[in-house]
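Notebook entry, structure prediction.
Reason for the run: the old model in the group folder had no record of what sequence produced it. Starting over properly, with the input documented here first.
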Amino acid sequence: MRILITNDDGISAPGLAVLEQIARDVAGPGGEVWTVAPAFEQSGVGHCISYTRPFMLSQLGEHRFAAEGSPADCVLAGLHVVMKDHRPDLVLSGVNRGNNSAENALYSGTLGGAMEAALQGIPAMGLSQYFGPDNAQLETPFEAAAQHGADLIRSILEAQPRDDADYRLFYNINFPPVPAKGVKGRRIAPQGFRRGSHFSAEEQTSPNGRRYLWIRGGNQHIATAEGSDAAQNLAGYISVTPMRADLTATDALERLKGIE
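New structure, fully documented this time:
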């Protein structure tokens, strides 16, 4: 199996090293793992692409490249430049430093990379490690992802339905904020919503009097609805959420027919 990996934390991020080991396990002895990751951190860029400017692509080693762009840019570079003659069988994005459950999924560069792969017709998964008091100070805070990631990916690949839809499936995987031995299992879960917790902006004044804004995140340990992704993560389970890039609110289509 040929696997392309990327992330949004940058080419030097520890989570990418974890993903490389996961990918090598999944690819097997005769497989290949190729890396095209952002040269600098790209957290929160979502599905952004560098449509109005070019970006540099640098080779750092065998099968290893850094791109001065977003995760979606990296996937485009991987599919259409780096691996253009032999496209990958699978794209993996992560392992993100922090969760991409609930509304975080909408901002996530990690999922932006997976989404772009799905739009290009390649099976894709985004992997993220939830942090909390039980794992943030571990010597290896990504150990839940490291120990459970490869088997989970193989299980999804074996179980995923045939998908010929225009908007292909991709998977949002979030590992709970516990040590590897504390993982209770896996749950297929819908995307949740953290009520009362959201991103915000905070103004500060620099020493020279200029105004700057910092984006602040919300409380990540507010449980979402029962059975949804963040609730399962906080209960100790790995969540797997199948997604598509189709943003249509299908529940509203019929109700709006009257305005035609």
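Summary: The first helix runs from residue 14 to 27.
The old model has been moved to the deprecated folder.
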